Design the sequence.
């Protein structure tokens, strides 16, 4: 999240100001990804934690949230988020299908 992969492009190409979780939140998010989601474990506690981080970012002015890890959308479906979700796994899949059908 600290890297420029998304933030730099969104800022440069679309003038979007990107907010990222605090360092301690990023550490917990990564822990959940690697110690739970990658192992197929989806807990209510982790779901609630992600919702809390998303809500805090919304309070700071975020208007949407990018799920940059493929498993996050399985943990937090869009209907459980207070912000619109951009699930990169779904976006890539949809674009791949559109490309194949064109």
Sequence:
């Amino acid at each position: 999240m600290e890297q420029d992969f998304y933030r730099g492009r969104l800022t440069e190409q679309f003038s979007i100001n990107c907010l990222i979780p605090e360092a301690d939140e990023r550490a917990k998010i990564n822990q959940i990804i690697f110690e739970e989601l990658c192992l197929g474990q989806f807990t209510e506690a982790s779901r609630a934690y992600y919702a809390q981080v998303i809500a805090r970012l919304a309070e700071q002015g975020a208007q949407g949230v990018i799920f940059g890890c493929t498993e996050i959308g399985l943990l937090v479906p869009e209907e459980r988020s207070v912000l619109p979700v951009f699930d990169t796994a779904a976006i890539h899949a949809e674009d791949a299908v559109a490309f194949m059908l064109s």
User: Anything to note?
Assistant: DSSP finds five helices and two strands in the chain. The mean pLDDT is 93. Residues 73 and 87 are 6 Å apart (CA to CA). The beta strands are 65-67, 85-87.
